[in-house]
Specification:
Helix content: 40-55%
Radius of gyration: 21 Å
Structural class: alpha/beta
Oligomer: single chain
Bound molecules: NADP nicotinamide-adenine-dinucleotide phosphate
Shape: globular
Largest sheet: 7 strands, parallel
Order of helices and strands: EHEHEHEHHEHEHEHHEEHEHHHEEHEHHE
Strand content: 15-25%
Number of strands: 14
Number of helices: 16
Length: about 400
């Protein structure tokens, strides 16, 4: 039996998002409170500088050293903690050894991976070990994909209470959001474009909406997918593709599969951005769709990708504290039952989605795993936020992370 010193250890605490998360843990949980936590990474000097910038003492915020490629050091890190929160990315480049060690040692794990092909690889390689050891592995605990996964969960709970049945078709539409991107996020996106440009099998896998569902999962309904500008009558608005739908839709489908098709065997789900009505809406949606397609095509071309990598923020860089503070997101959900009844909900967040808000969601996910969810109830395996946390994380996010889940009246 492990007797860990810490409930949660932040691995990659010196990353752009890891620093915001460490500050949040300090503000939210203090150093002698309910949650015992530590910071970890490969560079002692950077971790010491981070601790100093937090104004914390050695005893208050302990440091653990480990390189992402050193399985022995990762094993020592895992021995000391119940949960590892990892922000060491791109995960497809650096993430595998930690998932392996967590799965084998029975250590719970959360991250911000947004790379479906890497998550699928981790599932194939380590799900059996996690089941055996008792480790709960939870990917996608940031803006992708908590608001989508828990937003659908929240809407479906309400549909079951109100209609006695789930919504078999749900749409998520981004009404508004303000925020930027960090170097780590650009590095992850450019690496995913590089890998898929080189491998046709991977492109096929990325196009499969059920790529993260267990083998033999019953749902194989054709999924809607907004690829171009189109008019959405349910929102009375033009819509454009939403870049994060590539991961969010896969996670929501996995939740449905793990919940034994609680949202319906023929459940359909898609995401898009609202662009407004009339000609302006149509032009805006077309511009977004064209810009996104252009970025994807350009990023697949080696020399253009290298040029892009030189102009985007470097690892460790990202939106300013002022921009994080001014950021927000507002997501709208529309669900329709098999017999045509409908329900609307919204999920909002009070900081920029990718960093200020993501750090709070990730911290609460780690705390929820360490403090709220017993192994007797949720045993080892690869979970999603809706299936392992559900209501408990909704409450934590509403109480402590500036995220709100609300039902809306039909307009
Ligand atoms: N899902 C979401 O909503 C969301 C939002 C934001 C970010 N992200 C993802 O989160 C990840 C972090 O993003 P970021 O911008 O914060 O990253 P970043 O600033 O570039 O930081 C990367 C981190 O990885 C660490 N690292 C790299 N190689 C390592 C190794 N061999 N051993 C140990 N540590 C190593 C770095 O350590 P040093 O400081 O020592 O160099 C640093 O702490 C990215 O994958 C990004 O895509 C996801």
């Amino acid at each position: 039996m492990k007797a860990p010193h810490y409930d949660v250890t932040v691995f990659g605490a010196t990353s752009f998002v890891g620093q915001i998360l460490s500050r949040y843990l300090l503000e939210e949980f203090g150093t002698r409170g309910k949650l015992r936590w530590a910071i970890a990474g490969r560079s002692e000097s950077k971790l010491l500088a981070l601790r100093k910038s937090l104004g914390a003492t050695a005893g208050a915020v302990p440091i653990v050293l480990a390189d992402a490629a050193d399985e022995e050091a990762l094993g020592r890190l895992c021995d000391q903690t119940s949960v590892v929160i990892s922000t060491v990315g791109p995960y497809a480049l650096y993430g595998e050894p930690l998932v392996k060690v967590c799965a084998q040692s029975g250590t719970d794990y959360c991250d911000l991976a947004g790379e479906p092909h890497w998550i699928r690889r981790m599932l194939q390689l380590y799900e059996r070990a996690a089941r055996k050891s008792g480790a709960r592995i939870v990917h996608c605990c940031g803006f992708d994909s908590i608001p989508s996964d828990l937003g659908v969960y929240f809407l479906q709970q309400a549909a079951k209470r109100r209609f006695g049945q789930p919504c078999t078709h749900v749409k998520m539409r981004v009404k508004a959001m303000r925020g930027g991107f960090s170097g780590g996020t650009y590095a992850s996106v450019l690496n995913a474009l590089k890998e898929s440009a080189a491998d046709p099998r991977l492109r096929k896998e990325l196009a499969n909406p059920y790529s993260l569902c267990p083998e033999g999962d019953a749902s194989r309904t054709r999924q809607p997918n907004v690829k171009f500008a189109e008019f959405d009558a349910d929102f009375d608005s033009w819509v454009a593709p939403f870049v994060m739908s590539a991961i969010n839709t896969r996670i929501v489908q996995r939740s449905n599969a793990l919940l034994k098709q609680a949202y319906g065997v023929h459940f359909r789900y898609d995401e898009a951005m609202l662009a407004g009505r009339g000609l302006t809406g149509r032009l805006t949606a077309t511009a977004i769709a064209t810009g996104l397609a252009g970025f994807m095509v350009a990023g697949a071309i080696g020399p253009v990708r290298s040029a892009l990598a030189r102009i985007v923020p470097a690892p460790g860089e990202g939106p300013s504290p002022k921009a994080q503070e001014a950021g927000f997101f507002d997501l709208r959900f529309f669900g329709r039952t098999e017999d045509g009844r409908s329900l609307r909900a919204k999920v909002t967040g009070d900081r920029d989605p990718g960093y200020g808000s993501t750090a709070k969601m990730l911290g609460q996910a780690g705390a929820c795993l360490a403090l709220d969810v017993a192994r007797t109830e949720k045993p080892g395996g690869f979970w999603t936020t809706a299936t392992v946390f559900g209501e408990r994380l909704v409450h934590r996010l509403e109480a402590h992370a500036g995220v709100k889940f609300e039902l809306l009246q039909d307009p």
